[in-house]
Specification:
alpha/beta, 6-stranded parallel beta sheet, 3-stranded antiparallel beta sheet, 11 helices
């Protein structure tokens, strides 16, 4: 029996709760996308970008100071995301959506891989790197022309600079998405925390709020180090690509 199979076998109580659940909430973090070859923000600060700090590239002040530098960084990351493909963990979560009456999928990732895997509705707490928005009026755009000279593209309506449609350091998370995520955590029967250290607030509190409200919480990570323990919290040690397909297959055989 593989380690992933052992992890599933040790979570029978949580699996039975998931099988009977009417409302399920899922939070995904960088770990699930790392399996598709997408490095975390700071892990991507290599090569030509090794001399920069996050504050040089992902704050409103950085964009105001040097918009071309910031746009170039995000152009590189968009190319990386565009060449990546959803992995079995993403696919399993998309399948789970069809197996439970109501699923709320919350992500801290900005790569859109969960939508490409087939999930019909995803709450993006940190935005999406494949979109841009007007830096003045906030209008979101899905496509734009990249200038040949490497400069920052402009909004077609007001000629202001476009900026990545992501949440930068120092900016608030989108209020509507955060409110919906909080509501899902407080009303779900089962909460899955996938590929996240659960350290960055406010998303870090979501699984523990769910546990406090009586939900079964399943934490899926390559290591249980640093994660909370307690009644109703089940650690499934392994990668999302290993654990989630096995977990969902248990439900799919009903």
């Amino acid at each position: 029996m593989s380690a992933a199979d052992e992890a599933i076998a040790g979570a029978e109580v949580a699996i039975e709760r998931l099988r009977a659940a009417r409302r399920v909430a899922v939070l995904t973090g960088a770990g699930i996308s790392a399996e598709s070859g997408i490095p975390t923000f700071r892990d991507a600060l290599t090569g030509l970008w090794a001399r920069y700090r996050a504050e040089d590239l992902a704050t409103p002040e950085a964009f105001a100071r040097d918009p071309r530098l910031v746009w170039s960084w995000y152009r590189m990351r968009r190319a990386m995301v565009s060449s990546a493909a959803p992995n079995p963990g993403h696919a399993a979560l998309a399948r789970l959506e069809a197996l439970v009456p109501h699923l709320t999928l919350i992500t801290q990732n900005v790569d859109g891989l969960q939508q490409r895997a087939g999930s019909s509705r995803v709450l993006e707490l940190h935005g999406n790197i494949l979109r841009a928005r007007c830096s003045r009026e906030g209008a979101v755009v899905d496509a734009w022309e990249e200038p040949d000279d490497g400069e920052v593209p402009h909004c077609v309506d007001c000629d202001s600079l476009l900026r990545p449609d992501v949440v930068w350091f120092g900016e608030a998370l989108p209020a509507a998405a955060l409110e919906e995520a909080w509501a899902a955590a407080t009303t779900c029967d089962v909460f899955l925390s996938v590929g996240t250290s659960n350290l960055v607030e406010p998303a870090a509190s979501l699984p523990w709020v769910a546990a406090r409200e009586g939900a079964s919480v399943m934490v899926i990570n390559p290591t249980a180090a640093g994660q909370r323990t307690g009644d109703g919290i089940h650690q499934l040690v392994g990668t999302a690509g290993e654990i989630l397909p096995r977990l969902v297959s248990r439900l799919d055989r009903i």
